[in-house]
Design goal:
single chain, 107 residues, alpha+beta, Surface presentation of antigens (SPOA), 4 strands
């Protein structure tokens, strides 16, 4: 096999990749789903200060936080995920457990 050449990747630059971000999940009885209406709220399993998984074609590639950009939702990438599914950042780059400290770092 030939040696990996990063420059050869430019050929794939136009390949479409579907990126997705999931805010959270929940399970509820069907009777509760049937009672949902305008103004109903559904509590999800994620906390507001948790990073969201960014997936490319179903595989987690990064983690980020929701921001607003030009009137649209956007995602600020905080951590890249390695090929093994683990955070790609060094331990010292990990987020502080205090959400207020993380907001200050992001600015």
């Amino acid at each position: 096999m030939s040696e990996f050449q990063p420059g050869a990747l430019h050929r794939f630059g136009d390949v479409a990749v579907r990126l997705s971000v999931e805010l959270g999940r929940t399970e509820m009885p069907l009777r509760d789903v049937l009672t949902l209406g305008e103004g109903s709220t559904v509590t999800l399993d994620r906390l507001t200060d948790e990073l969201l998984d960014v997936t490319a074609n179903g595989r987690v590639i990064a983690r980020g936080e929701v921001v607003a950009e030009k009137g649209r939702f956007a995602l600020r990438i905080v951590d890249l995920v390695g090929g093994d599914g683990q955070d790609g950042s060094a331990p010292e780059a990990a987020l502080d457990p205090d959400p207020a400290a993380n907001s200050a770092k992001a600015l």
